[in-house]
Give the backbone structure.
Amino acid sequence: MNVGMANNMIPGTVFKKSDMGNTNGLDFLNKIFFITDGIMLSQIREITGIDSSTLQNWIKRGWVSKPKNKRYSKDQLARILIINMLRKNTKLERISFILSYINGSANSRDDDIIPESILYDFITDIIDKIAAGGDDGKLQEQVFSLKDVIDSCVHDYVEPVAGGTKRLKKALEIIVLSYYSTLITTYTEELFDKL
């Protein structure tokens, strides 16, 4: 989807893809965690632009699990990025609901159907494929749907519980549409500002 809207940012961050070597998703997370297994709150703020009180509020409400030894893991950062990329146009309670629909409680890994870092990778992969015009980038030659792109991205996903794939696909559709509604709103606001 492109009507002049720039999709040049790594979703949920303040970084341009080009500034990070055109990396995205899990590759981006792996770059962040290349040397360490946890990052500090100050680093989260630099990556996302979120202030400390907002993040602490998300933790207090149970939307993000508490850091261990003041360090956030790759999956915690991915969850924060997902929330951040959607929060402009989607109520936080709805974002929390969709993340719980996928992975239950933020404070337990036992009820997860997918690690948040892999979920974030699927989301960014879907967004990139849509921006490129589907799987092969030939938008004019190929008609594709969001569901087709989602199917393509999750084709090798192995569900840990029955119905996990169906839940994942439904959630991905909602998340990606919500992300695009944010892009559209931002683009519309930029147009208004130029009048």
